[in-house]
């Protein structure tokens, strides 16, 4: 869990369509996946809260969500660079993002302390690797 329900509801209610987009894939009332895109002050698009139901992974839904979010950022916000943060322990996901044009920058970002309670007490220090795609 990366975001609590109350925080997600607040994000959806308060999002500025000129700077923020939440896409949710739903089938028969069931959430299958989601992604949040936000236009940053440095004119990059930051993608986060990216998740796909584990039973549906490796079937193309994640790619469709990311494609749609990137297209919105490129076409509506006129940004040409994407940024995201990936838990550094998820080696399996790096290859997927690299195939999509994302590269590690070497920047490490600590996991937000206010969110640690939502996932339990980690056994290792949680950090994110910054990834950028210079050619959305």
TrEMBL record:
GO function terms (MF aspect): N-acetyltransferase activity
UniProtKB keywords: Transferase
Pfam family, one: Acetyltransf_1
Family annotation (Gene3D superfamilies): 3.40.630.30
UniProt feature coiled coil, ranges: none
Residues of the N-acetyltransferase domain: 1-122
PANTHER family: GNAT FAMILY N-ACETYLTRANSFERASE, LD18367P
Official protein name in the record: N-acetyltransferase domain-containing protein
Provenance organism: Lotharella globosa
Organism placement in taxonomy: Eukaryota, Sar, Rhizaria, Cercozoa, Chlorarachniophyceae
